[in-house]
Amino acid sequence: MTSSRARHTSAVDVAGLAAALRAGTDAEVRFDPGSRGAYSTDGSNYRQVPIGVVIPRTVEAGAHVVEVCARFGAPLVSRGGGTSLAGQTTNAAVVIDWSKYCHALLDVDPEARTCVVEPGIVLDVLNRRLSEHALQFGPKPSTHSHCALGGMIGNNSCGGSAQAYGKTVDNVRRLEVLTYDGLRMWVGPTSRAERARIDAEGGRQAEIYDGLERLVTEYLADIRRGFPKIPRRVSGYNLDSLLPENGFDVAKALVGSEGTLVTVLRAELDLVPVPPFESLLVLGYDDICRAADDVPRLLQHCAPTQLEALDGRMAQLMREERAYLDSLDALPEADSWLLVQFSGDSQEDVDEQAHALLDALGRKERDSSVAFSDNPAREQEMLRAREAGLGVTARPPDDRETWEGWEDSAVSPDRLGDYLRDLKGLFEEFDYDHPSLYGHFGQGCVHTRIPFGLKTAQGVADFRRFLERAADLVAAHGGSLSGEHGDGQARGELLTRMFGERLVTAFGGLKALFDPGNRMNPGKVVDPNPVDGQLRLGPAWRPTTSDTHFGYPEDEHSFTRAVLRCVGIGNCRTHQGGVMCPSYRATKEEEHSTRGRARLLFEMLDGHPDSAVGDGWRSTEVRDALDLCLACKGCKSDCPTGVDMATYKAEFLAHHYAGRPRPAAHYSMGWLPVWARMAQVAPGLFNSVLHAPGLARVGKRLAGVDGARSAPLFAGESFVQWWRARGVGQPDPADPATVVLWPDTFSSFFHPSVAISAVRILEDAGFRVAVPEAPVCCGLTWISTGQLTVAKRVLHHTLGVLRPYLEAGTPIIGLEPSCTAVFRSDAPELLPADQDVRRLAGQVRTFAEQLVQHAPAGWQPPPLARQAVVQTHCHQHAIMKFDADRELMRRAHLDAEVLDEGCCGLAGNFGFERGHHEISLAVGELGVLPAVRSAAPDSLLLADGFSCRTQIEQGGTGRRALHLAEVLALALDGTLPSEEPERLAQRPAAPSPTARWAATSAAAVLTAAAGLSAVRQLRRW
Fold first, then answer.
1. What CA–CA distances, in Å, run from 104 to 168, 573, 735?
2. What confidence score (pLDDT) does residue 372 get?
3. Directed axis angle between helix 594-604 and helix 645-656, to 10°?
4. Which secondary-structure segment (H or E) carries 310?
């Protein structure tokens, strides 16, 4: 079989094209292997390495990109969020990524309820900007946090809200489009006067419109009969929009054409009011088919905003993955559920709609199979659980890999139950077990992911046969191959089974009118690539394997399988909320998203002959993409499939630098625990040297530290020194009241006030505190810099020191979240067979966990009665969670505002490394630093992570943050100051100017003396 890349790019002068694009367009032009690898696939089963990637800075620049590509005959594909599930946005073509720069909201007309946008604007961003007008764009797919409007137009996206507002096609008024051969025009409904004007002007536009009229005339009866009259017909081109009775609407005909006909430059959209009140009714059923049977009856008695479904299989997976447990607990007793959302102008209105439906169904709100909520936050959480279906079902805990391919078929709602029974029968016939069935049942759209065997010839053959049988099945039910995600490559070859030969020929005629040279996203919809071609995996996929440092116990001990966790959902491209992915949010670069890095790691495995990355672990492209990974671990919790890029980065760095010199920062900051211990000999002297004029600059350069950063100050007395001087004997490890306070590097050598405060509070709560007096370390800094062999040695030593406590089952209390996370997560993966590591992971607790869950009955923390702004450390967000901290603050009468602003941006060594300072502060300025600046003067600022406290102090906020232990200890001492209460916390004092200059002078004298000695030695020679 001739490869798609060979067919479409063999005649393209790639070098000349790249040079012309760089010279003639205002765009970032990237034909390097890293960029091509990052864009080699989307959210689908397919993979095609692009010719190159172009990121226009303006829409006009994007139009020039099309012009240059046309001059070279290069195929094109436009891309927004890159979440397409049918392969629409992967092609052996020039990829135009509109999302980084072309995201303006150009105009809003609140009275007409319209707006004009550029193609790269993200749906949630658009709706936030429209919120001041109480308007929104109606369709809301589950990817609303990161999907672009251009992609929604290309795919004809829908989402649950399409129940009330229709598909994207129903909400597009006009489009500004550009054909491959250079025609630029605004299109929409065509009145007779408009048609006459086009005829009078002549030219290419008149040629296209004449051809459209001829096409409709020739296939008029076929179009009227052959398009299913169902709510969710997304497959095929929208030829029905060109019917006379539909206003000969060229814009709507182009919606859903997946970039195969034109390039969309701007769009005028219809808007809808934001409903002021909503309620949610959940109805339980014995199984998903019976729930589907009841949908027509529900629709007879109500007009919901959404009518969604999820089945018991999805609920089971959520419980096994411990996701959305609060939402699951709120579901009524049943095995499958329909979620019916109502909206209206008053709370009484939406409540009445729900109760009227219950009356019509003969159910009561108190029934065990019914749940009702008019709490907006609770409703959104339950609907988010339904939206999470793709991620929850992608990597089930039973280790089956499930795939798209038949993930969004649709039928009329009155045939939905029968269709589901037939579909389940097909699953059984192919031995596909029992995939979850869920989706937008109010419109007959069914989502599922199926355990296709895409790595063997037989599995791929079965995949193809299943798709053919399923296409025949949905056609027999009068439905659509796609009810939301489009055709692309996954369904393009199957369109004849749904529409018949004549209508598919008509699709080809439409393609020939707009793109006669087949340069626009070739191989999709018309003249499609095979459904089993260009697979991301496939029977010929042969990734290289090698021994790894981490054990990957949740991925069958395979780094390859760990990399395959990423299925392209794209939640790492969100703009706010959660933690993932800070480097993407700061750069808006695909290769600096979790997904982009996973794509490059996949290419690094060299499983395909045309892999963009060819030098394995030594790859500079992968190294550069991982360079801006903050190792925040946000993806481990926020990614629906649990990608852990921090671990993959550490693994890569270990192999990449094996047997050769590392960056200076790996020695200076990777070995920080050693240098910190050495500094305790004379901490004041070390501080003076690290901050000495001139000398500090030279030192930072040699250490690989960014010149804009100030070195943290060593404490005059470390926590362990304070502990020894205290003269308190070590308690018996077997005493139930004994706890080990972990003396991490940061709480011991930099901010000992944190550990001292923790001792005071733990003892106040009745615990007997033990502190290891021998040197110990969790190995964090070696792990984050990929020095994993050293990290293992450090951990083995630490386990030896802790052995009496591990054998006794003594709780080990962590104060620094990143170190606690090592014991909970990294250490068990580095040393999976070590029983002491397992014991340590089970015995380590956060400070708050110990006090909330294990303090003696009757103990209460000292009351504070203050407001607090709280920054959660990313590793705590990802690994330990923050529930215990919230509860401890509540008991201390703290009115805590826990920020949802993402990563602070420092992230351990990341923000100190040369070249990272700008990105580090950019991440902080996305939310955390502005929130701190806006905090009231009398508010407490809490940040348990040393990195977070350092970033707040060095980020121009004028404030300092405290550890929760410090705040509680201050409360023991009495009333806090009315303003900037952090002033009471003990922090190392900065060296005086005299001391700093003395260090510089001493260094100068020593340097001069050394130089003089060298000259004398040379003269002797």
1. 19, 17, 64
2. 93
3. 40
4. strand 306-311
DSSP string covering 602-665: HHHTT-STT-S--SGGG-HHHHHHHHT-----HHHHHSTT---HHHHHHHHHHHHTTTS---HH
- Residues 166, 233: contact at Cβ < 8 Å? no
pLDDT tens track for 165-207: 999 999 999 999 999 999 999 999 999 999 999 999 999 999 9
Q: Give the side-chain half-sphere CA count within 13 A for 397.
A: 11
Q: Are 419 and 479 in contact (CB under 8 A)?
A: yes
Q: What is the pLDDT of residue 979?
A: 86
Pull the structure tokens for residue 886.
């919230």
Q: How far is CA 651 from CA 549, 605, 644, in A?
A: 7, 13, 11
Alpha helices in 564-617 (DSSP H): 582-587, 594-604
Give the C-alpha distances (Å, rounded to integers) separating 321 from 25, 61, 397, 933: 47, 45, 7, 38
Q: What is the DSSP string of 936-1002?
A: -TTSEEEE-SHHHHHHHHHTT-S---B-HHHHHHHHHH-PPPSS-GGGGS--PPPPPHHHHHHHHHH
Number of helical H runs and strand E runs in the chain: 47, 24
Phi, psi of 952, rounded to the nearest 5 degrees: -65, -40
1015 Cβ partners below 8 Å, 6+ apart?
none
Torsion angle of the four alpha carbons 781, 786, 792, 795, in this order, in degrees rounded to the nearest 10: 20
- Element at 894 (helix H, strand E): strand 894-898
pLDDT tens-digit readout, 943-981: 999 999 999 999 999 999 999 999 999 999 987 888 888
Which tokens sit at 105?
């909201």
Rg (CA), the chain: 31
Other CB atoms within a 10 A radius of the CB of residue 678 amount to 11
With contact defined as beta carbons under 8 Å apart, do 435 and 449 qualify?
A: yes
Question: What count of other Cβ atoms lies within 10 Å of the Cβ of residue 990?
Answer: 13
Burial of residue 973 (CB within 10 Å: 0-12, 13-18, 19+) is exposed
- Mean pLDDT computed over 988-1005: 75
Strand-pairing partners, residue 770, are: 740
> Distance between CA atoms of 813 and 307, rounded to whole angstroms?
47
Q: Residue 116 is encoded by which pair of tokens?
A: 């004009």
Which residue type sits at 16? Answer: G
> For residues 56 and 22, is the Cβ–Cβ distance under 8 A?
no
Are 551 and 510 in contact, with CB atoms under 8 Å apart?
Answer: no
DSSP structural state of residue 862 = P
Helix (H, G, I), strand (E, B) or coil at 285: strand
> Taking a C-beta distance cutoff of 8 angstroms, is the pair 31, 474 a contact?
no
Please choose, from the candidates 81, 87, 21, the residue with its C-alpha nearest in 3D space to the C-alpha of residue 51: 21
Alpha-helix runs per DSSP H in 219-248: 220-226
Give alpha helix (H) positions in 657-787: 664-668, 672-679, 683-690, 695-703, 719-726, 745, 752-764, 780-784
**CA angle at 926 for the pair 116 and 569, rounded to the nearest 5°:** 65
Instruction: Evaluate whether 976 touches 957 at the Cβ level (below 8 Å).
Output: no
Instruction: Classify burial at 7, counting beta carbons within 10 Å of its beta carbon; exposed 0-12, middle 13-18, buried 19 or more.
Output: middle
Phi, psi (rounded to 5 degrees) for 739: -135, 145
Q: Could you report the per-residue pLDDT of 240-287, keeping only the tens digit for each?
A: 999 999 999 999 999 999 999 999 999 999 999 999 999 999 999 999
| Beta partners for residue 187, in sequence order | 175
- In angstroms, the Cα distances linking 120 to 108, 413, 569 are 17, 34, 17
Question: Which residues lie below 8 Å from residue 316, measured CB to CB, with a gap of 6+?
Answer: none
